[in-house]
Amino acid sequence: MNQKFYSIGLVLMLGAGYSLTALSQVKPEILVKQRQAAMVLQGKYWGPLGGMAQGKVPYDAAIVARNAGFLETLSKMPWDGFVPSTKDVKSGALLAVITDAAKFKEAQERLESEVAKLVAVSKGGDEKTVKAQLVATGKTCGGCHEDFREKK
């Protein structure tokens, strides 16, 4: 009799464990919202930097250093939201983020690398070097948009 109760208990525990795993998976719509939120924040902190790179905004080393630091974190955030389960959710992302995942991964890594370089040069404070890296970082962002984002 006790062995029968142990067997039933084991089956119930295993079933509950599998149920919790299924319930804890994030819905595709939430993943899209999260990745979009990270991208919006990237845009917020990139805006002044892009303006400085183009000479439209006065250069401010403190803002560059601060925003580059934020971008370093933000540049790592959206990528786990680009998964096959999100392909049918309306967003600005092209299907190529799923179908050409290797190229998309390269673009992600290139962005993270360029932002890391921006953080490093922003600590030196040399305006010319920083602006050159701002241009390189901006080209990386734009290149990804060309291949993986709907045209607006």
The tally of helices reads 6
The SS-based structural class is mainly alpha
CATH architecture: Up-down Bundle
Following the backbone from N to C, one meets helices and strands in this order, namely: HHHHHH
Describe this structure in words.
The chain is mainly α. The chain has one domain (26-148): Four Helix Bundle (Hemerythrin (Met), subunit A), CATH 1.20.120.10. The chain has 6 helices and no strands. The longest helix is centred in the first third of the chain and has 26 residues, at 28-53. It is elongated and about 75 Å long.
Write the layout of secondary structure elements.
Blueprint: H1 2-24, H2 28-53, H3 61-74, H4 96-99, H5 101-124, H6 127-148
Helix pairs in contact: 2-3, 2-6, 3-5, 5-6
Short description:
The chain has 152 residues and is mainly α. It has helices spanning 2-24, 28-53, 61-74, 96-99, 101-124, 127-148.
